């Protein structure tokens, strides 16, 4: 995409099937330390990025320009891709994060009893995990007033192709409810600055839904994310800042296993942001209630996905998406090859969803799951309410290629691929060559080869010892020459 920087942050759940090897909290520490100190995939942070949530040595930047770290809230492993401006780069760097974690487990001889999962829901514990999207956008004063009304309808209905699907549902309730399944952590950091808590009940009225996180989103926009989860979290930081551009942090996202679904999710979002920034977003798309729309579309067993607009009329989520698509085709067609790819696939997937939603099972996670689970129930006599269905739901997101159900579908030729294994392998240790991640990756690799220097590495700057600094303010610039001069000075 010509003028957009984007990236993905994924929180991984850790499943330990043999307590003798350690607790999940101990395992994520062991994996993180092994990645940085033994395998030397990157440089461990010597400084605290946040004294509460990311203390010193909680993680660090990788040779590929991304980050691997432990998020203190929930003590889970988190992987952030490097900054990308090419959709296929994003796909391969996102997949590289899963391969990295599964490989670390295998090297530690933990893979038989430990696995990482990029699912976004804990069916029985009531917790939800994030997959957050970051976009470089023009954030002017009018953004969260005028622009938000154009963006939210797109975000709450894109789940018809971006949703990863889940078995069952949750209801938010009082923490004191006798049916509350959520257990609270003993770690104080999990509740820093949290003023409101809720409980979670299993909702037996839902067999399957499009979104894993829709049941847990309680705000359209919020600066707090724990027990106050929102669709958008404003990030007024410098990590993606350049000129009048800033980072738009989309909280309501889910971790796609499908390469196609990830490409389409981020690609269409970029085009809608283009329309909004240029003042050419389609009119009459504002929905009456974004949060209710989010849940009702996710839970609609008929797959008609009817949405009520603010003007009182109703429209299908497919046709609402088509309003954005038509505007994008009118103004953005032939701008660049990837824009045309997204426009073509956006139109195709909407047509296929209207004709036969399950015909998309070779491209969309939720449809692949539904077809697979329905076949399993027909063959075994199981029902949606059986515990085994939640287990299947979890194993679809197993990051270990030899174990995950998604990888089984892929190896059988039932899921469409966009990148090769060789391209993913390269992304494990090499940064993208068209963003500032390239310069950062070069410096990380050189510092690994010449240990002993003290450093501070961040998204937008690098410091070595007390007198060397390289600013990385422009995310579109590779900083290759600047990085080489910087390293010669050291």
Helix content: 25-40%
Strand percentage, roughly? 15-25%
What summary fits the major beta sheet?
10 strands, mixed
Radius of gyration: 22 Å
Task: Report the CATH architecture of the largest domain.
Answer: 2-Layer Sandwich
List the domain count as a whole number: 2
Structural class: alpha+beta
Our measurement of the CA-to-CA distance between the termini, rounded to an integer number of angstroms, reads: 35 Å
Give an account of the 3D structure:
The structure is a single chain. By secondary structure, this protein is an alpha+beta fold. The chain folds into 2 domains: 5-180 and 192-428, Creatine Kinase, Chain A, domain 2, CATH 3.30.590; 436-488, no CATH class. Helix content is 38%, strand content 17%. Strands 1, 2, 3, 4, 5, 6, 7, 12, 13 and 14 form a 10-stranded mixed sheet that branches. The protein has a 3-stranded antiparallel sheet with strand order 17-18-19, with helices on one face. Strands 8-11 form a two-stranded antiparallel ribbon. Helix 5 (259-277) crosses helix 7. The longest helix is centred in the N-terminal third of the chain and has 21 residues, at 87-107. It starts with 5 loop residues before the first strand and ends with a helix. Mean pLDDT is 89; it is low at 188-195. Its EC number is 6.3.2.-. It comes from Chthonomonas calidirosea (strain DSM 23976 / ICMP 18418 / T49). This is Pup-ligase protein.
């Amino acid at each position: 995409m010509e003028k957009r920087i984007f990236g993905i942050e994924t929180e991984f759940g850790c499943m330990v099937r043999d307590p003798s090897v350690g607790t999940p909290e101990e395992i994520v520490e062991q994996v993180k330390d092994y990645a940085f100190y033994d395998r030397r995939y990157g440089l461990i942070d010597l400084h605290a990025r946040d004294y509460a949530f990311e203390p010193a040595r909680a993680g660090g930047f990788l040779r590929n320009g991304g980050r691997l770290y432990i998020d203190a809230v929930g003590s889970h492993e988190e992987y952030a891709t490097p900054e990308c401006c090419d959709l296929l780069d994003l796909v391969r760097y996102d997949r590289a994060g899963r391969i990295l974690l599964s490989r670390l487990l295998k090297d530690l001889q933990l893979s038989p009893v430990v696995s990482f999962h990029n699912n976004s829901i804990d069916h029985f514990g009531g917790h939800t995990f994030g997959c957050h999207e970051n976009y470089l956008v023009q954030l002017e004063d009018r953004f969260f007033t005028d622009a938000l009304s154009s963006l939210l309808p797109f975000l709450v209905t894109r789940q018809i192709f971006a949703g990863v699907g889940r078995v069952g549902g949750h209801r938010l309730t009082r923490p004191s409810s006798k049916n509350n399944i959520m257990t609270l952590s003993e770690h104080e950091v999990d509740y820093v600055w949290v003023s409101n808590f809720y409980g979670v009940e299993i909702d037996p009225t839902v067999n399957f839904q499009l979104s894993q996180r829709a049941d847990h989103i309680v705000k359209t926009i919020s600066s707090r994310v724990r027990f106050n989860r929102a669709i958008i979290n404003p990030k007024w930081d410098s990590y993606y800042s350049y000129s009048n551009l800033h980072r738009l942090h989309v909280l309501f996202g889910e971790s796609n296993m499908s390469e196609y679904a990830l490409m389409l999710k981020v690609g269409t979002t970029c085009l809608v942001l283009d329309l909004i920034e240029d003042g050419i977003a389609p009119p009459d798309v504002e929905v009456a209630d974004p949060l209710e729309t989010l849940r009702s579309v996710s839970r609609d067993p008929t797959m008609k996905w009817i949405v009520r607009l603010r003007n009182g009329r109703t429209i299908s989520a497919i046709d609402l998406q088509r309003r954005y698509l038509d505007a994008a085709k009118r103004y953005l067609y032939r701008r660049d090859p990837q824009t045309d790819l997204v426009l073509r696939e956006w139109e195709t997937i909407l047509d296929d969803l209207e004709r036969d939603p399950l015909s998309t099972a070779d491209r969309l996670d939720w449809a692949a799951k539904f077809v697979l689970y329905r076949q399993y129930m027909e063959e075994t006599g199981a029902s949606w309410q059986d515990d085994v269905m939640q287990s299947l739901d979890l194993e679809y997101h197993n990051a270990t290629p030899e174990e995950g159900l998604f990888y089984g579908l892929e190896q059988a030729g039932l899921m469409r691929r966009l990148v090769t294994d060789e391209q993913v392998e390269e992304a494990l240790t090499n940064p993208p060559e068209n963003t500032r991640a390239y310069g950062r990756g070069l410096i990380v690799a050189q510092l690994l080869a010449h240990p002993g220097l003290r450093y501070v590495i961040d998204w937008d700057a690098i410091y070595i010892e007390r007198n060397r600094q390289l600013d990385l303010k422009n995310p579109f610039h590779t900083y290759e020459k600047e990085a080489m001069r910087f390293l010669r000075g050291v």
